[in-house]
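Q: I'm writing a short methods note and want an example of a predicted protein-small molecule complex. Could you take the sequence and the SMILES for zinc ion and return the bound structure as tokens? Please keep the output block clean; save any remarks for afterwards.
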Amino acid sequence: MKISVSALLSVGLLATTSSPALAVGQLPAGVRPLVYDITVNPDATSKTFTGSETVTVQVTKPTRTVTLNAADLTITSASFDGKPARVSLNAAKQELTLTLAARAKPGKHVIAFQWRGKINDTAAGLFAIDYANLDGKPARMLVTQFEAPDARRFAPMWDEPSFKARFRLSAVAPGDQTAFSNMPTTSITKRADGSQLYRFAETPLMSSYLLFLGMGDVERKTVLAGKTEIGVITRRGVVDQGDYALASAQKLLAYYNDYFGQPYPLPKLDMIAGPGSSQFFGAMENWGAIFYFEPELLFDPKRSTESSRNRIHTVVAHEIAHQWFGNLVTMAWWDDLWLNEGFASWMESKASNDLNPQWFVKAETVAKAREGAMGIDATAATHPVIRPVATVDQLGEAFDSITYQKGQAVIGMIESTLGADVFREGIRRYMAKYKYGNTQTDQLWAELALAAGKPVADIAHDFTLQGGVPLIEMNSAICSKGSTQVSLVQGRFGLDQASKAPQHWRVPLSYGFVGGPVASTIVQGPVANTINLPGCGTLILNRDKGSYVRIKYDESTHAAIVKDYAKLDLTDRLGTMGDDFALALSGDQSLDRYFDIIKAVDLNGSPLEWWSVSGNLGAMTSLFLHTDLEAPLRARTNALLAPIMARVGFQAQPGEAPLVTNLRETLVSRLGANGQADVVAQARMYVGALATDPNAIPPAIRQPILSTFANSATPSDWDVLFKLTREATNPVVRNSYVRLLGQARDETLGAKALELLKGSDFSSPQKAVLLSSIAGRHPDMAFDFAVANLDLVNGFLEASSRTGFVVGLGAGSNDPAMPGKITTFAEKNLPEASRGGVKRALTAIAVRKRAADRLRAGLATWLAAGA
Ligand SMILES: [Zn+2]
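A: Understood, no commentary inside the block.
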């Protein structure tokens, strides 16, 4: 699964979603499913479906009862070996228990069920996506989303990752629609009522959360990658927008076939574009039938830009990596979810970097994913990468930046410690040994250790079994008689007091002088570590930023780095900026050091450096909203970025570097958010032109121009946006307008947007998008509205998001009253076990408050000093 991660990038922390407090429970092991034969018949109009299945099971211990999962299903018949069996449902545990007439003996048996189920409005189980077709007529696509754990809303199943089985799926689809699933269609039978019965080929052995079914008025286009047919499936009329994803998938499949040493095992790999949205995820790796929401898969030349291409490639790379890491070899239980997600996140970057060198993905990972992980990990709200998952709530919370980005960083660190070739050899061993099976993390470390000929688990355990970010502090670096002696100590990097408790890691650390060779060591805690190296010069620690650690230099080394900044590798420039900003936020060093570094960034430097500067200044601005520092900080940011904007220009130049195109979006967006006059004027001009030409805004700046217009909207501007929203038939365009309606800085317009949530202009997912968007601008208003209208809000949220969503709305507030309001809300509405999101929201607020207090004096001095 690819979660929605844009908000993870700021140090401001994301309040993640979580799911209802239902015990997952681990099913009894005495009965295992071998093959499911499932047939479903959806009624898209009434949003219900009927289903029937026969499951061939292996009984290993004599038993009178069989327990499996079911949720929101009405069982209409059940039998065991053809004899009726008594059914009892436990809604809280989402379990179904069959009581048999007599004890079942070990061996194969057949269980059969019939049931009725619901088609949901939001992404859980079988769900509906409503949209307008190109001719403007309403259309409804049906698709499934089963991770995690919602396959049980589709059919009674052993819905846990270790119960791998084969699936034979059949589905009834309307006569004018096409159905699609994990495997190719084997037959289509016309039925008397004009509908069609689709049968799909049997899947390989796999976990229930990877099963998929979809149907709708779609088109399919294919290419071949070796023997594998890769397809893209879209709503009618836009299939060509899948060309870029198809071409990317073709290269990626070849890349992964080689990397993993196991060929992709299914005959086809479809990528399905759904014209909707989710609060929770952007794409899902169903084996052979990857589902994406449209913006993650389709490239629309009229509206998409280089960053969309980059994003599509990343998401496709992530989901295809899962076809091996996750689908072929699957975690035994959800506490090892990071094995799936950390690895796929790491692989998406590696593959994108190797296949698209023009994007500098490796450096981008240092600037973005690394910072994303270290934000939450440096607070009291963190947790180990591997942690117990016992409830559906904890499972929902497990899809967070620790699982994804920290997991990615740890895998990257192990790879750079072992070397890329040795690491790949270990992965190939692991794939070969465990294909079609389930594993725990230590089985991966064991194969890597065998490939490397040395232990891996000791370092790996330090970074996966405890939370937190190590901080290596350079006490001194003394050059004497042609060699340098460096003294290092280790501690825990923390953004709040609670996260600064003593803690230690074995940290692989590379080091070397600028322009010189690289050596490495393992830094142990808690004693001082000494390293000696020949020569003298400007010493850089954590060269290439391969290790998961913050670095604090002594005064003179830092000064030397500022002086030699231009000579550093891009990864080290970005990593040093990130460390210096974070160390200022945590109070470990003066904000001056950060300002010294950004002063050294060249006007013609990498777009990624300016992306980082822009992002950090924006994060700082969010700490000082509605204070005396807000206006001067915005003005200073504009003055600093204006020359870069002038260099980049508003119009994309033919043949410009892709990162420059991305930087233009960043700059227009930041300057627009700061109300910079030029950008605001451009935005008004372009949006005015939309009245006569819907494609008036060049794709390269479309999104930030619209955002700028929305941010600074007057009441009549907002009416223009509302009109554009209502008239938009393209589902992606419509969704993006819905988001814009919540972005106005004007409070009365925020209130007006909130009123829309009570009406019927928008679908449930769109209402969730709108409310999140309003919270980004007016967290207090959004939170108060949700509390006052809780039933209304819960009604349009995904079940998996309900417990974390409302408290998350308040997480961006700087109002001293907000923590009290969140606590009161939680005590009244959320069970004790479902308050992970509460902890995160409260931590985020506290961390921002502390950071603002620490930065205020240094920032005021910098602003007073002027450019
Ligand atoms: Zn994933």
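A: Remarks, as requested: Confidence is low (pLDDT under 50) at residues 5-24. Residues 1-2, 318, 322, 341, 344 surround zinc ion (CB under 6 Å).
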